[in-house]
Amino acid sequence: MRIILYTGKGGVGKTSISAATGLELGRRGYRTLVMSVDPAHSLSDAFDLSQDLMDRTTGRPLKVAKNVWIQEVDVLEEIGRHWDSVYAYVSALLNVSGLEQTLAEELAVFPGMEEVSSLLYVNQYVREKSFDVMLIDCAPTGESLRFVSIPTTLEWYMSKIFKLERRVARMVRPMVEKFANFPLPQEEYFANLEDLHRKLCGIDKVLADPEITTVRLVTNPEKVVLKETQRAFTYFCLYGMTVDAVIINRILPEAIEGGFFTAWKQTQERWIRAVEEFFAPVPVWRVPLFQDEVLGVERLKGLGKELYGSRDPAKRFFDQPPYRFRKVNGNYHLEMRLPFVSAEHVDLYKKLDELVIRVGSYKRHIALPQRVARCEPLSARVRNGELVVVMGRNNAEPKTEVTTSSRS
Ligand SMILES: Nc1ncnc2c1ncn2[C@@H]1O[C@H](COP(=O)(O)OP(=O)(O)OP(=O)(O)O)[C@@H](O)[C@H]1O
Ligand SMILES: [Mg+2]
Questions:
Q1: pLDDT exceeds cutoff 90 at 47
Q2: With contact defined as beta carbons under 8 Å apart, do 59 and 94 qualify?
Q3: Closest residue to atom 15 of ligand 1, CA basis
Q4: Hey, what CATH class is 2-77+112-152+202-308 in?
Q5: Looking at residue 399, what is its pLDDT?
Q6: Domain with CATH 2.60.40.790 in the chain
Q7: For 161, 287, 379, 408, which has the most beta carbons within 10 A of its beta carbon?
Q8: Domain 323-405, what fold?
Q9: Is 251 in the pocket of ligand 1 (CB under 6 A)?
Q10: pTM of the model
């Protein structure tokens, strides 16, 4: 079983590349599902399918070629199916805050529900071993980061907050309902969350297991796109996910020379070199700009051929683990690949048996092995794209602050 995420900035070619990869895998005999988790689906457009056909299959897998299925998850339908009590509670809460009912219902689709709805399918197919390979055509970078961060966040919420919240709600409900005019979540709300948690159980491990899941970053040879690709790379590392290839799409072909395109060609050459330097040793693949849009099975197959040649897309092309613990001179070192950030953008602290690392607005809780959990963070540094946190027994006064030195 393999899961491969294709992600990148809006419009770089994620959907076309996912679809082309699906066809190449199908040709090689892998039962493959290409799943779109972007609410603005365009997978069916890439295959040039009619909206009518998609409407009739409503969010279920649809066979598009030998061994190849596509699925566009219908978020609203999934919310109705999986989130009824949570949704009812949140919209009731928004409603008493003075919002008109229909607007409250709109807003009650809070961030994360869409991603969880898609993850439920991924986990179901993993459990049922429905496919050999699942390709995830992600939403533009920001949202796809939420997709991968939700399982760890949910796990953390369920283990640390959920039970307490449920107990508090049970205790104070009679009193609050008498005196306050806002609703407290009912038992069904908690039961709904518990049910979702049970259905998602294990997905965090599946996503973080490089034997199963890898990420492929799609980019274009342009400065602004590349900046976002670097940020995405950092955050996927933070979530313990392995990026096993970077794909540069829309490269002007050799045949195009001079005239209007002179500056474009120079700019592209410059950023292609930069991509290869930035992401080494992760493999970088190139795809030319085609003469026209890449629509329909035949053109997608052409894209697949250009991209993979004789390579098997299901392989793992890079498998360095994103982080590891090592014992060095009696201390423990947590070493985490965290390229493109400097120390001042990293914040970390230890809380019970977890190390919490924050980069920008993204936070990761790393469960510490038992022996390491007894240590405190003594120092941290970012060097050559790697964060090293030294953990040890602190014999002096307990030290809460961690010093980080600048990247060299
Ligand atoms: N190498 C290429 N040559 C020519 N056209 C391309 C190439 N790659 C993608 N396209 C075209 O560019 C358009 C956008 O591609 P695509 O939908 O795959 O991007 P995306 O990253 O999925 O976009 P979004 O962020 O909106 O989901 C499509 O019309 C597609 O056919
Ligand atoms: Mg797309």
A1: yes
A2: no
A3: 13
A4: alpha beta
A5: 45
A6: 323-405
A7: 287
A8: Immunoglobulin-like (2.60.40)
A9: no
A10: 0.81
